[in-house]
Amino acid sequence: MSRSGSSYSTPRLCVVGHPNRGKSSIVSTLTENDSVRISPASGTTRRADRFEFSLDGRVLLTLIDTPGFQRARQVQAWLEREPVSPGARPDRVRAFLAEPGHAERFPDEVALLRPIMEGAGILYVVDGAQAPSPMDEAEMEILRWTGQPRLAVINPMAPQSQTESWQRTLGQFFQWVRVFNPLTATLPARQALLRAMGELTPEWSAPIKGLIQGLAARDQQRLTNVSDALAAYWAEQLLERQAVQVPGAIGRQRAEGQLRRALDERETDFFRHLREAWGHRTSELERDSGWELDADQLMNTETWYLWGLKQRDLLWVSGSAGAATGLAVDAGLGGASLLTGAISGGVIGSVGGWLASRELPGKRLGWLPLARQKQVMGPVKHPNFPLVVMARALTFTRQLWLKPHAERSAVVLRSEAGTWPREEQVQLLGWAKRLQQGRWQAKHQDALVRWVEHQLRVSLDEAFSREEKTSWV
Ligand SMILES: Nc1nc2c(ncn2[C@@H]2O[C@H](COP(=O)(O)OP(=O)(O)OP(=O)(O)O)[C@@H](O)[C@H]2O)c(=O)[nH]1
Ligand SMILES: [Mg+2]
Predict the structure, then answer these.
(1) What is the 100 CA–ligand 2 centroid distance (Å)?
(2) Ligand 1 atom closest to the CA of 157, numbered from 1
(3) Which residues form the G domain (predicted)?
(4) Stretch 163-169: mean pLDDT
């Protein structure tokens, strides 16, 4: 076995470059690990750190995050101090590492060159927004001296692009040059970069091919699993009920509060479950709106447009789905204020009547006498609710799925879904009605899961092809 990187069947690359060029970001995204330290401050990574990427318990790629070069020109000067034939250059780099005092004088260079000379390949990162400088040239020359397999990545850190001039420069020092943005890269971009890695040395070709296929298979499995979980989550939200023993308005208020909390918690739990399953330990879910269950909000036409559902659509959809008609109050409700009525759904069962009259439902309904002590809230029957629950869940699932691990900001739930055609909305409302009426069967569950899977597949494919057209070709 040679001492070179090609002796390792699991590809192992050292990620190197100038400080603050997104080296750790690339490590984080490629290894799907959001514990890799990233910050706007230069010099964040102080020592070489290994990060492994595994699938099904097998390590398929090892990346070594390193500090940036600090004194590249001095190192280059040392290397070139005496005449060295091209074949002897790697030994000269080893001599640099062995030289007493260099670990103290050049700590960053020693930290990044040591794993390379122990056999790792090189992934050199440059900022595509800044033109190449003589300092970069010294770094590239040192890396060429190591004789290890080398790939360069242009990270487009700002819109102004120096990509072409980088391509020309890097092409002289590296076997492959690729553009890769660790803050936006989704699966196809990662696979494209991995393909280039697989061509650096023949020994890596088969393992990298396996890794690329493994990622595709993992994504397919992920789609199956998450569709199942999402459908179950939706059904649970639609069946959520909360009861309290306290009579009167206080009881109603309490039950209503419990219902809201239960809905919020289940949404948060579902998000957290995905987050943990997909290795995003730090990203939170930021919601910019609640469940739109308040009577006030229901009367505010703006909320009808939340998720793109127009008032007309809502009316039509709810009519077609055969939403409850009449103004009957849910049997479980002892008494109904305007608010509890809105939540229980009975009051707005006839969306037609309500929207058409543009009146507060409570005005016509009046204040019902208290019939029972026990107050039950839910399930929520407002016709918007099944659509909103589904749209929100699909939205954050998609956002989290597409989120590279170097991108640490919160997932912000914005009003962006609801582009479903009417037939699809009717379909969802039809399922909601079956569920709430206890007419739910396995075949409905299967159909719902397939529907969710289709929605996710289409939106992910859209995002993938958008990226293919922009950031990495
Ligand atoms: N806009 C933009 N910012 C980026 C990109 N890549 C990385 N960054 C940001 O640049 C900063 C530095 O990123 P790091 O990944 O910590 O860079 P590094 O090269 O590891 O830095 P050191 O460890 O200090 O050498 C962070 O704030 C990143 O979020 C990019 O493609 N675009
Ligand atoms: Mg770093």
Answers:
(1) 26
(2) 32
(3) 13-155
(4) 92
- Which ligand has the nearest atom to the CA of 184? 1
Q: What whole-number percentage of the chain has pLDDT above 70?
A: 77
Number of C-beta neighbours around residue 134 at 10 A:
8
**Distance of alpha carbon 219 from alpha carbon 65, whole angstroms:** 26
Residue 51 per-residue DSSP state: E
pLDDT at 294: 53
Could you tell me the two tokens for 428? 């969802």
Give the Cα separation of 140 and 132 in Å (integer).
11
Q: Given the CA of residue 26, which atom of ligand 1 is nearest to it?
A: 15
The β-bridge relationship of strands 150-155 and 121-127 is parallel
Q: Is 21 near ligand 1, meaning CB less than 6 Å away? A: yes
Tokens 């998450």 sit on residue: 226
Residue whose CA is closest, atom 16 of ligand 1?
38
Confidence category of residue 29, pLDDT binned at 50, 70, 90: very high
Topology, domain 5-183: Rossmann fold (3.40.50)
Q: Where are the domains of the chain?
A: 5-183, 219-468
Q: What's the farthest any 2 CA atoms get from each other in the chain? A: 100
CA distances, 70 to each of 73, 89, 159, 210, 257 (Å): 9, 21, 26, 36, 58
Contact assessment for residue 23 and residue 64, using Cβ atoms and an 8 Å cutoff: no
Closest ligand to residue 22's CA: 1
Cβ of 128 closer than 6 Å to ligand 1, yes or no, is no
Instruction: Return the best residue to mutate from 14, 18, 20 for the ligand 1 pocket (most ligand atoms within 8 A of CB).
Output: 20
Give the atom of ligand 1 at the shortest distance from the alpha carbon of 28: 15
| CA 8 – CA 120 distance, rounded (Å) | 8
Q: Which amino acid is present at 166?
A: W
> Token match 């036409």: residue?
301
pLDDT of residue 402: 95
| Ligand 1 atom index nearest CA of 125 | 19
Contacts of 97 (CB under 8 A, 6+ apart): 110, 113, 114, 117
Ligand 1, residues 14, 18, 23, 25: which to mutate, most atoms within 8 A of Cβ? 25
Q: Which ligand is nearest to the CA of 182?
A: 1
Q: Which residue spans within 159-305 are E strands per DSSP?
A: 176-179, 242-244, 285-287
Q: What are phi and psi of 53, to 5 degrees?
A: -115, 125
**What 3-state DSSP class applies to 118?**
coil
